[in-house]
Amino acid sequence: MTHLVVQAPVLADADLSHLQTLVQARRDIDLAPHALRMTDVRDDAETRAAVKTYCTEAGIDWAFVEPGARLKDWKVLAMDMDSTLISIECIDEIADMAGLKAQVSAITEAAMRGEITDFKDSLRRRVALLRGLPLDALQQVYIERLKLNPGAERLVSTARDMGVKTLLVSGGFTWFTGRLKERLNLDAAYANTLSVDAQGRLTGDVDGDILDAQAKADHLVAFAKLHGALPSQAIAMGDGANDLTMMGVAGLSVAYHAKPVVRDQATRSINVCGLDSALNWFEDTAGR
């Protein structure tokens, strides 16, 4: 039988009662404050659709999970950086240093919604606008604006404790992914490299090939192989259209506070809770 895990900043009794009736749960298990597992629930298309509709309107995260599922049975956790592991889009904040945030963020948003299908071109256009900015601007963004999303450290450290290898793969920039790799003790991190001139200013170009959606997927597959795993043994988390190819090759795809196009294609979504709420899907990490 299937279980249903529901989570929210506040779980109202009325909402729980409605869901329990809807799925005809056999019993409830408290997992953590504001997280509950309903066991042996109805699992048909009609019920799933009804749960999705109700939880979306009520501001509740939900996931139909298999009994006995354990995080340690997965081998890889792959994450996007901007707006997934961290709360900002780094390129937009760098552009703000040049007074160009509105112009750059409009391109970023369109690309993440899937309205711009050529990510490489969109990135080149945005990076070109950064020409002449000093590297100090990136340092300022990192210190003053870059924040981990809620639950990031707990998710990563717990995954590591369970023997899961961690991968950060981003269409953003190595200047940030490298620092996050060290900060969170990640196993690997890949991103694009901004070109810098002799005076320590951005040239408006990217060095080497641009890491796009396909490259993200390729890195996940190669990283999994390096650690003796199949892509089907990987969890991939992202928020934008550029993550969909990577998420598509993973065994479990998670849309985190994502664009609709991503939520519609992901295995599961986290819409209102933090990254660490994913731990409550697994019986060996629930409530940790």
Task: Tell me the layout of helices and strands.
Elements: E1 2-7, H1 13-23, E2 28-32, E3 35-41, H2 45-58, E4 61-65, E5 76-79, H3 81-85, H4 90-96, H5 101-112, H6 119-128, H7 135-144, H8 152-161, E6 165-173, H9 174-184, E7 188-196, E8 202-207, H10 213-226, E9 234-238, H11 244-249, E10 252-256, H12 260-263, E11 268-270
Parallel strand pairs: 5-6, 5-9, 6-7, 9-10, 10-11
Antiparallel strand pairs: 1-3, 1-4, 2-3, 7-8
Keywords:
alpha/beta, Alpha-Beta Plaits, elongated, four-stranded antiparallel sheet, Rossmann fold, 12 helices, 288 residues, 11 strands
Q: TL;DR?
A:
The protein is α/β, with parallel strands linked by helices and 288 residues long.
Please, how many domains? 2
The total count of strands amounts to 11
Rg on CA atoms, Å: 20 Å
Derived structural class = alpha/beta
Active site: 80 (nucleophile), 82 (proton donor)
Catalytic activity: O-phospho-L-serine + H2O = L-serine + phosphate; O-phospho-D-serine + H2O = D-serine + phosphate
GO molecular function: L-phosphoserine phosphatase activity; magnesium ion binding
InterPro entries: HAD-like_SerB, HAD-like_sf, HAD_sf, PSP
